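The material for today's practical consists of a large collection of protein records. An example says more than a description, so a record of this kind follows:
***
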Amino acid sequence: MPGIKPVQIKDIIRSAVDKARAAQKGTDDLRKAWQSAAGNEAAAHSYPRKKNGDTVVIVVDSSVWMHYLHCNKNVIENKLAVFLATGKGVHIKLMAGE
């Protein structure tokens, strides 16, 4: 068929593995930044689920920690922006979870 080039399976697999490694590194970097910004104790009760643009969704395991993070939201957002080196503001969205 004209215009279709065959692709080796090894190239498809290599590409998929590279994408998965990059995604995992991004997740690891976000978790480390969250731990640094929120502190070890708060990070033990919460974790970043995903980053979408300048918003980071944080899952919190109890209402006590939800309240704590909400009360310290501005400070944590500023620290998180520094640790992520975004050059712009970062917003956190807190949600109850596991």
